[in-house]
Amino acid sequence: MALPLELIREIIGHVLHVLLAPPTTVPEEPYTNSKPQFSLISSLSLASRTYRTLALEAWFQILFTESSADPEFIQNELPEIREWTRKIHFSSPSLSSSTAWNFGGFRRLQVIRIDCPVFYYDHCFNVPSTVTELDVRAVTWPSPFVLQTIAILLPLLVTLRLSHRKIWCGLCHTCCLVKFAGTVPAKLVYTGGLGLPIHYARALSCMPRLHTVSITLPYSPGAHITLDAKDPMHELWSGECDRCVGIMYEDQTFREIWTARKKGEPLSGSSGDSAERLYIKPPALETVEWCFWRGDEEAKDEDDEEDNEQLGDDDVEDDDEDPESDGAE
Questions:
Q1: Nearest CA among 320, 304, 279, 281 for reference residue 174
Q2: Fewest Cβ atoms nearer than 10 Å: which of 14, 16, 139, 185?
Q3: CA nearest 198: which of 274, 266, 142, 278?
Q4: How many structural domains comprise the chain?
Q5: Based on the domain organization, do 154 and 103 belong to the same domain?
């Protein structure tokens, strides 16, 4: 007795996207295609026309591409792929400011992953309302401008994932490498919508459905910041750099006011300027998680020169890159 086609479809999808998925305990390098090889199911695709359709459908649930021209090619030459695709992974290490990804026609698209050094307003258009998750990796200068861009382009996101080498420090208003002292937990989880850099939270505050933000970063040994996964709300670390903490936390009054601001709680006697810059939680945000992995043993302060050149969110300007390369799977 032959198995029902729906069951065969589920088996193929489980093998490709669960059993053969890359391990989540190891950070995936940006600009890499994590899809299993099609050769693993190619024999099934040769069994019959029906099985070939099922195999291709499962294979193209995730579409990996290195060219913004691929979606247009698919729309014109292989339109059925638009019905199969649930996740699109764009990878472009040399991205041009003129690059534009057209998501039109992908009516069942749920997840977008973008690996690129910069992120512009006009990089994405015709994004379907079915997209609930965005995964952005390898942005070299992840300032609040990037978060503001995301909020404008995809206002109905439920989950936002960020994975970069640096993070925004709300004290010096620059993007810095992360350094910690002591034992570093693999994950730091905040609930109640707290835990983002203040400027990130404000940029995302217009997103009515955003529920989870996950930020993955490498870290190296530092001197002034110690994380406590059992009591993360005590200091409420949210991106501050080791240098700023070492200098500015010497002032206990400033430390108390700054921590209160990150909780959205103005202290009595604090200046009006502080009250106006409180943490504003996106309305539906519940979980903010920080995931850490060990980077270079001795990370160089290579961001010093960049910090001097790129001061503040409004001053960030990304250089145009070379046109992207071709290739889709």
A1: 304
A2: 14
A3: 278
A4: 2
A5: no
